[in-house]
Amino acid sequence: MSETINENVKGEPAMRAENGQVMLECRGLTRVYHEGPQDVTVLDGLDLEVRAGERVAVVGSSGSGKTTLLNLLGGLDRPSGGSVRIAGQLLADLGEAQLGRFRNRQIGFVYQFHHLLAEFTARENAALPLIIRGHARRDAERRAGEILDQVGMAARGEHKPGELSGGERQRVAIARALITDPSLMLMDEPTGNLDQSTAANILALMDELASNSACAFVVVTHDTSLAAHQDRVLRLGNGRLSAG
Ligand SMILES: Nc1ncnc2c1ncn2[C@@H]1O[C@H](COP(=O)(O)OP(=O)(O)OP(=O)(O)O)[C@@H](O)[C@H]1O
């Protein structure tokens, strides 16, 4: 497919975000794994809509398909059927390289284990998505400084992940996810490896970020207090989502 067809892949999102607009839309999303002795249908015609500024928790038992769903929403895997649309862009219309660029610009990922690069400072880690995007290193690191300030980590910008606490690393991971001003934030157990009071700090930070942004949040968690804190709780079971 020609690069020129998808203007948003080159620069702007297809849709300008306004709170209340649908930012993420899945229709009939299906994923069947063909590996192993028999086919496994994990997602089976799942529908989901998340609006700009809205936070949705997805809960479900082990093996219900939460990771599968996040991978599809994040463009890390392709569905067997159905569609994912983010900020107006149908992911199926993007080739692999375009999808990579779209992911870098429009989607922020935060995982239970932060995946920060050990040899880089907090500031360099947070700046990375902008550097990948082609920004000058100096500008990217200046912006990283601002965003680290926003997550309460301004004073630790020159420290490497090994010199930070678990909660501090998670804040850096959140800063890194936020730096491109994504349309969709995908969080997989963002408080999973943190003690209660650090988790509460991260929760408060998420509140603040969500109220100041038009991003849609999808948070996969087993943590009932984190789930209850979101605008809606959806339960994944039998390949579909229902009100939790
Ligand atoms: N590549 C694969 N091939 C075959 N089956 C797979 C593959 N990946 C996942 N599955 C199966 O799909 C189902 C859903 O897996 P998934 O990892 O999405 O669940 P989950 O809800 O994230 O689980 P958990 O909470 O335990 O992490 C499981 O039954 C799993 O065994």
From TrEMBL:
SMART domains: AAA. GO terms for biological process: lipoprotein localization to outer membrane; protein localization to outer membrane. One of its GO terms (cellular component) is transmembrane transporter complex. The keyword Iron-sulfur does not apply. Residues 24-244 form the ABC transporter domain. It comes from the Bacteria. InterPro entries: AAA+_ATPase, ABC_transporter-like_ATP-bd, ABC_transporter-like_CS, ABC_transpr_LolD-like, MacB-like_ATP-bd, P-loop_NTPase. Keywords: ATP-binding, Lipoprotein, Nucleotide-binding, Transport. CDD domains: ABC_MJ0796_LolCDE_FtsE (cd03255). GO terms for molecular function: ATP binding; ATP hydrolysis activity; transmembrane transporter activity. Gene3D superfamilies: P-loop containing nucleotide triphosphate hydrolases. The keyword Ribosomal protein does not apply. Belongs to the ABC transporter superfamily. Macrolide exporter (TC 3.A.1.122) family. PANTHER family: IMPORT ATP-BINDING PROTEIN, LIPOPROTEIN-RELEASING SYSTEM ATP-BINDING PROTEIN LOLD. This is Lipoprotein-releasing system ATP-binding protein.
